[in-house]
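hi support,

uploading two proteins for the ticket. first:
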Amino acid sequence: MDADEKLYLVVDDDDNFRKKLTEALILRGHFALSAANVSAALEICSAHKITHVVLDLKMPEVDGLSGLSMLLDHDANLQIVILTGYGSIATTQAAIKRGAISYLTKPCSVQEVICAFDYEPQAQVEIPSIDQVEWDHIQRILFEYQGNITHAAKALRIDRRSLQRKLQKIPQNLK
């Protein structure tokens, strides 16, 4: 392995998923190792020059966010992608603030994992407000019901008049 080669480390408590992702990376010509938890990952990082880490968010003992901090404390040059089946805006923000370069939700392909490491943001990604998310959801439901407010309100499980009031309040960033 050359000094500038990528060495992947897959950290996931799901044995089957971890083995499959590691094998898929190897089949695509990458060097890859795996660990079942953060403690094992730290040992591997001490023994090998790991450059890229795929880190599961939900793990027993040490969760992915704590593990992210621990791994970056060990080697600040690590590129870490958080991978989870339980994605949320809050955990995405927390992971990025702690130093993850990307955040993916399962299921995802090996190609998506590889591309997540190659992604270079052009600017700071702005996370939408709750009002914006609600507005977009209402608009999708309205479109689905072809603008019929009564049917859309039933689908949203709110009163028709409540939906009409919400539609009158356009989020600030859309004005």
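and the second one:
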Amino acid sequence: MKKIILLLIFVSSISLFAKNILLGVVPQQSPLKLANKWLKITKYLEKETGFNIIFSTEKSIPEFEKSLYIGLYDVSYMNPYHFIIANKRQKYEAFVRAQKDIVGIIVSKDKKLDLTNIKSLKNKKFLFPAPNAFAATLLPKYEFKNIYNFDIDKNAKALYVNSHDSVYKGISRGLGYLGGGIIRTYNNFLEDIDKKNLHIVYKTKAYPSHPFAYHPRMSKDDIAKIEKAIINMPSELKKILSIKKFKKIDSNEYEVIKNLNVK
């Protein structure tokens, strides 16, 4: 009995004295759904690095942005536009991302929607997860304006509904005519009662996907451990995130996002 108690004390002391790393994750889905996924990831990262990896997110993307832009997170998984702002304001540096680029989509219940007749979208309601969701909001707005000469903010009605899942549900249930998302969250949206009503009617060009980035208070040695763990993440955990492979990067990869001038 004494040995068991001593072992428990020893195990607890390891956790107690391990370094705490706050991992912030952009809420593309509800906090509960994210937690169910990412707590499996943080458990793995803890085992591989010896750190206490503390999962953190917010109820909405704008709330996440507030926390990110004041430097709350030690390490964060964010969208490419968030990274540009976080790098400028807090000197976050990108170090890992999914190998596959990100593509924005527009979904509708109308699978025969013809974007060559763009004027038919005048005064239609668009649903987006948040004003600064990169591929789900900023890219479609940018391409509709620059390719089709259709300014969604001026010629239609944009409504922000907090998450990608809320967009898909809203379009399915007739709360909007068109909605922005990304391939990964669309594939992960498994609610059949709504999914069966949705059709992808537009895809944007591809750009560098969401980076993991670290705050400058993090040491290079600590980041190297986290980087190695992410890149070597087992397939079953990567599948939870709908990512096939990670690759090492640096912040220069996101210069292309700066040049877009999507705001």
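thanks. also noticed: Confidence is low (pLDDT under 50) at residues 1-14.
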